[in-house]
Automatic annotation (TrEMBL):
GO cellular component, one term: cytoplasm
Name of the protein: LRRC63
Gene3D superfamilies in the cross-refs: Ribonuclease Inhibitor
PROSITE patterns cross-referenced by the UniProt entry: LRR
Source organism of this protein record: Bugula neritina (Brown bryozoan)
InterPro entries: Leu-rich_rpt (IPR001611), Leu-rich_rpt_typical-subtyp (IPR003591), LRR_dom_sf (IPR032675), LRR_domain-containing (IPR050216)
Keywords for this protein: Leucine-rich repeat, Repeat
Superkingdom, taxonomy of origin: Eukaryota
Keyword Repeat annotated: yes
A Pfam family this chain is assigned to: LRR_8
Length: 214
C-alpha cells in the first residue's frame, strides 16, 4: 500500500495497531482515522508517520499518549478526545517545530494538570470536559494578549484563575496574569505622623514615608 494516502478504520473492534509496520507499508499516508475502536495505546513508533497531517484516534481507550505523537512534523489535526488520558508527557520546547498544528483536541478525558507547552504547538487547543483545577501563569503571563490562539476550557472544575476569565478565552487569561505581574511591582507609601511631647506642648512632626508592597 505504498501509494495509499488515506486510511479509514472507524467504528470497528480494533484493540491494537501495528504502528511501525503500518508506517513502513504506508509511507505516504496523510490521513488516518481510528475513531471509535478499542485501542488502548499509541506506541513511540508513531514518529515513523512522516507524512501524516491528520490523525483521529478519538473514542478509544487510551490512558496515555507518547510525546512523539505531538512531535510529528507535518501533523495539522490531532483528535484524541473521548478517551481516558489522565496526564500528558513532558515536551521539550527547545525542539524546533516547522509549523503550528491547527487543532489539538484533548477534550473529554481525565487530564488534571494543564501543560502550557500545548500553547506553543497548536493554534487551537481544546481541553473541555477534563479535571483541570488550576491554570499556572508562569508561561502564559509572557504571551501577547492580542494572540489569535484559542484555548477551550469548558466543563472543567477550574478555581484559578477565576472561572469567568477562563471562559473568556486565552487573551483574557493572559491579560489576567499580566495584571497580577504588574501589580506585584507597585509600591504604596504612607506618611508617618510623629507626636513628640516637650515642655511647651506636643510637637507634630512628619516623618519619611514608609513603603510597603501592595
Amino acid at each position: 500500500m505504498k501509494h495509499l494516502t488515506g486510511l479509514d478504520m472507524e467504528c470497528n473492534n480494533i484493540t491494537s495497531v501495528p504502528w511501525q509496520e503500518l508506517a513502513t507499508s504506508c509511507r505516504r499516508l496523510r490521513v488516518l482515522n481510528l475513531q471509535s475502536n478499542e485501542i488502548s495505546s499509541v506506541e513511540k513508533s508513531i514518529k515513523s508517520f512522516r507524512e501524516l497531517i491528520q490523525l483521529n484516534i478519538s473514542h478509544n481507550k487510551l490512558t496515555a499518549v507518547p510525546v512523539e505523537l505531538f512531535s510529528l512534523r507535518k501533523l495539522q489535526h490531532l483528535d484524541t478526545s473521548h478517551n481516558q488520558i489522565s496526564r500528558l508527557p513532558q515536551y521539550n520546547l527547545s525542539q524546533q517545530r516547522q509549523h503550528m498544528m491547527d487543532l489539538v483536541d484533548l477534550s473529554y478525558n481525565n487530564i488534571y494538570k494543564f501543560s502550557d507547552w500545548l500553547l506553543f504547538i497548536s493554534w487551537c487547543t481544546d481541553l473541555s470536559a477534563n479535571k483541570i483545577v488550576t491554570i499556572p501563569g508562569s508561561t502564559i503571563k509572557h504571551m501577547d494578549y492580542e494572540t489569535t490562539q484559542r484555548l477551550v476550557l469548558r466543563e472543567n472544575p477550574i478555581r484559578s484563575p477565576p472561572f469567568d476569565i477562563c471562559m473568556a478565552g486565552l487573551p483574557a487569561i493572559i491579560k489576567h496574569f499580566q495584571e497580577i505581574k504588574n501589580h506585584s511591582h507597585i509600591y504604596q507609601g504612607c506618611d508617618l505622623l510623629m507626636i513628640k511631647t516637650n515642655s511647651v506642648g506636643p510637637e507634630v512632626q512628619w516623618g519619611k514615608p514608609v513603603w510597603c508592597r501592595a
